[in-house]
Amino acid sequence: MNETKPVKQKILIVDDSEINRSILINILENEYEIIEAENGIEAVDILKKSLETISLVLLDIVMPEMDGFEVLSLMNNYGWIKEVPVIMISAENTNEFVERAYNFGVTDYINRPFDSFIVKRRVVNTVVLHAKQKKLIELVAEQIYEKEKNNNLMIDILSHIVEFRNGESGAHVLHIHSMSEILLKKLIQKTDKYNLTADDISLISVASSLHDIGKISIPESILNKPGKLTKEEFEIMKTHSMVGASMIEEVIFYKGEPLVKMAYEICRWHHERWDGRGYPDGLKGEEIPISAQIVSIADVYDALTSERVYKKAFTHETAMEMILNGECGSFNPLLLECLKEVADVIKMEIGAVKKPEIETPKSQMEMFNIAEHMLDKKDLFSNENRLKIIEYERDKNDFFASISDDIQFEIVSDPSMLTLSKRGVEKFGLNKLIMNPEKNEKIIEILGVENISEIKRMLYSTTVEEPIIRFEINIMFCGEPKKVRFVCKTLWTFDEFPKYTGAIGKVII
Predict the structure, then answer these.
(1) DSSP class of 308
(2) pTM higher than 0.70 for the full model?
(3) N or C: where does the chain have the smaller number of CB atoms within 10 Å of the terminal CB?
(4) Which segments of 306-440 does DSSP mark as H helices, in order?
(5) What is the pLDDT of residues 125-182, one digit of tens each?
């Protein structure tokens, strides 16, 4: 019987010296499959195509075109440094170089000349340790996911009970969650005043589902009364905020949990108003926790744009006008600015037009079943299939680029880098990958210094909500001035705060 040989793990060796690469290959080729790159640009291209299959990068520092630190910067920019470990190999052994390498996230640092035993040992240790860490992260992530799923499920059940008694659709809870998240993300772009993190945004959005839990205690005759409430009935209705807070407070075993704290704040104070005319405590201005302020606006907006037993739904535009004009009580001026700036996003993602077919219990159950089915098919998310999908998308994009007269490009901000499509290389006579394009003589000759400055200004003036820019400029094409049209979309990361990382786009000649 023929035994299947174990698949060797792949190591990418990046060094401009063929002799150095050969030495490392001789040390490692029996245990590992070796991929070579003569410089940083070639290494980046290999990582783009084969990141999922590479177990380790051995990276030199001093190289032409793109040095080792520039490769590390790019790997950090794309998040690759978290996916594949890097061992720096260099004759440079000063503290400055070593410290800089570790600051970029390298796992280890090996000095030349090589000691074969040390190289083997450190490579084995790094590959094994990273594999174990990756497996541990996956296990923890699965546990966290299951815990969060169960938490969210219980919150959804409780909140839907309230919505059912209140004669409202379950979509109200989903809308409050989504709108709270949208407003919070805009708020942290505008100010760091509230010191909100990505975790805080998640907690507030989840806790918002419990904002009306206290309505369980309100008689249905008041909750679902088609006409205007009497003064006495309204006073009873107002008690739901205190009742909800008391219910949360009595969850003794989890009293110190951040989610419980957020839920308490939201339940108790989401009907407070900026001018102090809200209830139950008449808090004013910043006395109201930002979590309750956010949910307050979201709650009012969705109440206005939803049909109730006592009113028809208002349009998105009317609801926005009523809130901004102060017809629904006063709100934090900064949050009103955020609301105006994300109005189109809210209309698109939540919308004044409700979709009953999505909100029915039957359809929700069908969606749950589809989600569970997808999760059961874990092989769909295997590395092999992900690589096939990535390769398929790359082939498709390359094909469309090849049959189009448009010139496609990608800009990376750190390190500054421009990548052109094959058509761009042919038409402009430029390299496919250009480092520091704003200082490249050929780029300056084609675009001009003023156009380069204006393009940079436009790129940096975009936002996550409005990432697309379109403009026309005159360039030098084949030695003659020509008007061309640019279309760009800026790209962003979201580790804690949105960060501009570059752009993709095309030039239409």
Answers:
(1) B
(2) no
(3) N
(4) 316-324, 333-341, 343-349, 356-359, 361-376, 383-402, 422-428
(5) 888 888 877 777 666 666 656 656 655 665 666 656 665 566 554 577 778 888 999 9
